[in-house]
Amino acid sequence: MNVTTIFKKIDPNYPQLKEIIATSIGNPTADKINTVLASYEKDGELIGAFISTQLVGCVGYTVNASHLVIRHLSVAKDFQNRKISSNLLHYILAFQGCHKLSASTDIEAKDFYEKLFFQCIKTESKFNRDRFECVYLKKTN
């Protein structure tokens, strides 16, 4: 059965968003999740992925000139491995018209970004974990 995923801008106070975005926050606590969501009220955008009316994923980002910085990318556990994350990235790349995307991520997500043709370089981390800066440059015609 083919299921259509709809992408649309959402508010940081959207129901179910706390549960979805928590998976992309290191050591998530209620205060930390609230702080992250409040930061989107000041700077950044959130795009939700919906199947029917259910929020199943989100991407949070900021745009500086033609550089899009991915801050959070999350999909509900029951909906993972359905290309929702990659489709969210393709959506914002087309929607925002940026030439460069970047994301700071951990070892668990590095392969995901590399499969989407991001170049990932190991960076210093204050968390005693391997961190990677992953960059995608959109080809221009």
Structural commentary:
One of its GO terms (molecular function) is acyltransferase activity, transferring groups other than amino-acyl groups. This is N-acetyltransferase domain-containing protein. This protein has about 140 residues and is α+β, with helices and mostly antiparallel strands. The protein has one domain: Gcn5-related N-acetyltransferase (GNAT) (Aminopeptidase, 3-Layer(aba) Sandwich). Helix content is about 30%, strand content about 35%. The chain contains four helices and seven strands. A seven-stranded mixed sheet has the order 1-2-3-4-5-7-6. A hairpin with a 2-residue loop joins strand 3 and strand 4. The longest helix is centred in the N-terminal third of the chain and has 13 residues. It is globular, with a radius of gyration of 15 Å. The model has no long low-confidence stretch (mean pLDDT about 90).
The main sheet comes to: 7 strands, mixed
Q: How many E strands?
A: 7
Sheet/helix structural class = alpha+beta
CATH homologous superfamily (4th level) name: Gcn5-related N-acetyltransferase (GNAT)
Strand order of the largest sheet: 1-2-3-4-5-7-6
Cα separation of the termini: 37 Å
The CATH architecture can be named as: 3-Layer(aba) Sandwich
Rounded to the nearest angstrom, the radius of gyration is: 15 Å
The shape, in one word, is globular
Text of the CATH class: Alpha Beta
How many structural domains can be distinguished in the coordinates? 1
Order of helical and strand elements: EHHEEEHEHEE
State the helix count.
4
Strand content: 35-45%
CATH overall fold name: Aminopeptidase
Model regions low in confidence, pLDDT < 50 over at least 5 residues: none
* pLDDT averaged over residues: 92
Considering DSSP H and I runs of 4 or more, what fraction of the residues is helical?
25-40%
